[in-house]
Amino acid sequence: MKITVGHSSEAMAKAAATTAAEILREAIRHKGRAVFIAATGASQFEFLKQLVAASGVAWDRTTMFHLDEYIGMSADHPASFRRYLRERLTSKVPIATVHFIEGDVADLDGEVVRLNRLLAAVQVDVAFVGVGENGHLAFNDPPADFGTETPYLVVSLDEACRRQQMGEGWFKTLDDVPRRAISMSVKQIMKSAHIICTVPEKRKARAMQACLEGEVGPMLPASILRTHPSCSLFLDPESASLLTPATLSA
Q1: What angle do CA 5, 9, 12 make, to 5 degrees?
Q2: Which candidate, 205, 194, 193, 198, places its Cα nearest to that of 240?
C-alpha cells in the first residue's frame, strides 16, 4: 500500500484524482475501455469534483459500477447514492455505461442476480473507495465477510455505520437511516486491478489508525486493503494524525 498525506483535504483529493485519472487513461490506451467502481459519501465530495475536472479521460469509453445503495430508498431521496452519483459524476462526464444499484426494486433477489451477472463478466480496472468511521469498506460493516465470492450481497448496517450517515447530515434521526443495503463484497473490491482510497477528516483518524496499525481481519474491514498489490491510500493531516511515522513511511 502506498500512503500519501496531502497538506489539506483539497490537496489530498487532487492527488487522488490525478492518480485515478491516469489509471483510467492507461486502461483506455491499452484495452480501449476502462471499468471503474464509484463510491459515495462525504469522503468522495472533493475527489469526484477533482476527477471530473481531470483532462484527457475518454469517459465515453468507460463503464461505471456503483459500490453500494440503501434498500427501499427511491433514487430521488436526498440520501440516495444514485442521486449522489448523478449529481456529482454521471451528469458531469459522458460515461458510456452506468450500472446503478436499484435498491428500491420489488424483486431484490433479482436485482442482486442482475448486478452479479454484469460484474462477473468484466475485469475492474480501478475501484474508488473510502473508509467508514467503524472501519467498514463499502457497506461491509464489522465483522465483514472476507470469504464470499459473490460480487454483490445484501448486508445489514450496524449502529455505528447508521450513526455516521446521520452525523454526515443525510438523515434527521437514526430511525430514518435504513438498516439494510446492497453492497459490493470485500473480495470483489479486492479483485480490482487498482484501488484508490480517499479518507479525509479527523473523525476517520481512529479508524485509519486501527486499520493500518492493527491486525488485518474482518473486525477492521478496510484493513484488508493493506494486502492489495496496488492500493493507493490518500489521507489529509487530520485523518493521518494518529498514525506513527513508521506507518506513514512504510
Answers
A1: 45
A2: 205
Q: Cβ of 139: how many Cβ atoms within 10 Å?
A: 25
Question: Per-residue DSSP letters for 58-115?
Answer: -GGGEEEEE-EEETT--TTSTT-HHHHHIIIIITTS--SEEE---TT-S-HHHHHHHH
Provide the CATH number for the domain around residue 39.
Answer: 3.40.50.1360
| pLDDT tens sequence across 79-106 | 999 999 999 999 999 999 999 999 999 9
> What are the tens digits of pLDDT across the range 39-55?
998 899 999 999 999 99
CA distance 126 to 103: 23
Helix (H, G, I), strand (E, B) or coil at 143: coil
76 CB contacts (<8 Å, ≥6 apart)?
83
C-alpha cell at 187: 473480495
Number of domains the chain contains: 1
pLDDT averaged over the chain?
96
pLDDT digits (tens, 9 = 90+) for 162-194: 999 998 888 999 999 999 999 999 999 999 999
DSSP 8-state class, residue 139: T
* 182: containing domain: 2-249
DSSP 221: G
pTM of the full predicted structure? 0.96
